[in-house]
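Progress note, sequence design subtask.
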């Protein structure tokens, strides 16, 4: 690899001057214009969508976005809501630290900014859960600010069009991409609408044409100048993350039944599934049996089908076991939302933020538990 991660051809280098104009024109004619969070300058709706879209596809986000707006129509409503309500609506969307930061951010905007999002990208980036690229997107869409974005879609576009070698997550490569992205921005004479169209165009190009698997080069406005297209390196660029062995972890979970109710425990605020409600766990079956006895379970387990859940950096094997209370009905099902444990009727499980694999497990058992 050369000393610089960017070794552009003359054609690609000359493209820098025309990049913004060509992208804005393409976005206005062929980009996305009917997403639920478009056609608005409301920073709350734009911020909500940008947080949800982090590492998540548009089709997955749309129903969650709609439900959030019904329950939390503005930043004040979100800030004043119990965290349990936020986590319950977020359940299944993944990357749960986003939901906790979303709640903290809403509270910060209400307490420090009077319920109004700041217009400056730098001030936005200081809020919980908002990084440099997300802050730039919010500032561009809500306020027409000239601010550079560099999310995964944009990195893929830049790597291919300008022939940037190296893994984009490497600091040296990412810094070079930030510098290039700054140079490609529309000029100072560009209108607010041009800036917003440019930012949306980068997102649209990476999400609809310059996709990871099979890019649609025939419809790309930069096909004639794209280094990856000219050299047949679409599959090579951007460079993949260096492979590492994915660690495998294992846990045992207890489905403790009292009639049609199950026992849930609130997880610690940090770590996987932080703040969500889940099943009691242990490091092995013997430890789970000890926990079950302490919780008043009758002797013996029913073995349930194991589950595997994949996180970003590891895989989790879940060994679920089912048991009944030794004295059914002795512990009445109650709503204990502010406590660390709760006996929850399965019919009301939607009111709790439950991790996706736990929800899958309980849904599979619902017929036998009711």
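Output:
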């Amino acid at each position: 690899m050369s000393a610089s991660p960017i070794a552009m051809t003359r054609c690609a280098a000359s493209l820098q001057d025309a990049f913004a104009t060509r992208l804005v024109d393409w976005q206005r004619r062929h980009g996305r214009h009917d997403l639920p969070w478009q056609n608005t300058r409301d920073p709350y709706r734009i911020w909500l969508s940008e947080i949800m879209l982090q590492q998540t596809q548009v089709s997955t986000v749309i129903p969650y976005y709609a439900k959030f707006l019904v329950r939390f129509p503005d930043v004040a409503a979100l800030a004043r809501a119990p965290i349990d309500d936020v986590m319950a609506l977020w359940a299944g969307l993944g990357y749960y630290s986003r939901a906790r930061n979303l709640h903290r951010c809403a509270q910060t905007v209400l307490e420090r900014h009077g319920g109004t999002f700041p217009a400056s990208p730098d001030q936005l980036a200081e809020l919980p859960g908002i990084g440099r690229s997300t802050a730039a997107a919010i500032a561009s869409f809500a306020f027409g600010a000239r601010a550079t974005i560099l999310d995964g879609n944009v990195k893929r576009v830049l790597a291919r069009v300008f022939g940037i070698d190296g893994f984009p997550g490497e600091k040296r490569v990412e810094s070079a991409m930030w510098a290039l992205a700054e140079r490609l921005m529309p000029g100072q004479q560009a209108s607010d609408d041009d800036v917003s169209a440019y930012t949306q165009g980068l997102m649209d190009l990476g999400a609809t044409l310059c996709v990871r698997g099979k890019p649609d080069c025939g419809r790309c406005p930069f096909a004639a100048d794209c280094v990856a297209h000219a050299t047949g390196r679409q599959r090579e660029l951007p460079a993949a993350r260096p492979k590492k062995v994915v660690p495998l972890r294992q846990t045992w979970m207890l489905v403790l039944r009292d009639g049609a109710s199950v026992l849930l425990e609130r997880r610690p605020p940090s770590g996987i599934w932080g703040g969500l409600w889940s099943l009691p766990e242990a490091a092995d079956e013997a430890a789970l049996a000890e926990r079950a006895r302490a919780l008043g379970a009758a002797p013996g387990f029913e073995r349930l089908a194991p589950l595997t859940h994949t996180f970003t950096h590891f895989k989790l094997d879940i060994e679920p076991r089912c048991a009944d209370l030794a004295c059914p009905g002795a512990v009445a099902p109650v709503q204990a939302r502010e406590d660390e444990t709760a006996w929850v009727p399965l019919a009301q499980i939607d009111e709790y933020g439950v991790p996706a694999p736990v929800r899958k497990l309980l849904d599979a058992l619902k017929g036998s538990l009711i």
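The CA atoms of residues 133 and 151 lie 6 Å apart. Work on this subtask will continue into the next period as scheduled.
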